[in-house]
Automatic annotation (TrEMBL):
Domain called Tellurite resistance methyltransferase TehB-like: residue spans: 4-176
Matching InterPro entries: SAM-dependent_MTases_sf (IPR029063), TehB-like_dom (IPR015985)
PANTHER family registered for this protein in UniProt: TRANS-ACONITATE 2-METHYLTRANSFERASE-RELATED
Species the sequence originates in: Sulfurimonas hongkongensis
Name of the protein in question: Tellurite resistance methyltransferase TehB-like domain-containing protein
Length: 184
């Protein structure tokens, strides 16, 4: 944990706060009831701040205290410094769970259980590119396999699912998987 925390703190110490909300969240947030939201691996809070301004009470979880310090100090934001390898999502608590550009398979099933009835999950992250693109390979443990995200949330009502080629902030072509799903 300390090594991960140190690495992420260094990254966020040198990085400007990203203000631009995730496109998938902006597009599909209306499918969730305004209430309590969880932003998994929230970083500097681009999605957290957006949700708070929309009227959600937000639990913003990240390992980096440097990143958490950059999030708005709104009273509706609860900053939680935690190692997501050990963090557990409270069952039946959230109207919305957001997970963007992060994968921890241990908590995916907890996300389903963490949703209230009618709760929505919005999840988007990188797919294994199988060498399709000339960028340094990330740790394969943090990349989805084809249709993995769909299968992980198949028990929910799938509102939107897509696997596509996109461009990351560095201008590299990447594969992305996105899902928006609702718990009955």
């Amino acid at each position: 944990m300390l090594e991960d925390k140190k690495r992420w703190n260094e990254k966020y110490s040198q990085k400007e706060v990203q203000e631009e909300v995730s496109t998938i969240l902006e597009k599909y947030v209306s499918h969730a009831n305004i209430g309590i939201a969880l932003d998994v691996a929230c970083g500097t809070g681009r999605n957290t701040n957006f949700l708070a301004k929309k009227g959600f009470e937000v639990d913003a979880v990240d390992i980096s205290n440097v990143a958490l310090d950059k999030i708005s100090k709104l009273p509706t934001i609860n900053k939680i410094e935690a190692d997501l390898d050990k963090y557990n999502i409270t069952p039946n608590k959230y109207d919305l769970i957001v997970n963007v550009n992060y994968l921890n398979r241990r908590i995916v099933s907890q996300m389903k259980d963490g949703l209230k009835s009618g709760g929505v999950v919005i999840f988007e992250t990188y797919l294994l590119a199988h060498g399709d693109f000339k960028i340094p390979t990330m740790n394969l443990d943090y990349l989805l396999r084809k249709n993995e995200l769909l299968h992980a949330f198949i028990a929910l009502e799938v509102i939107y699912y897509e696997e596509r080629i996109d461009v990351n902030p560095n201008g590299d072509r990447v594969k992305i998987a996105s899902i928006v799903a609702k718990k009955s």
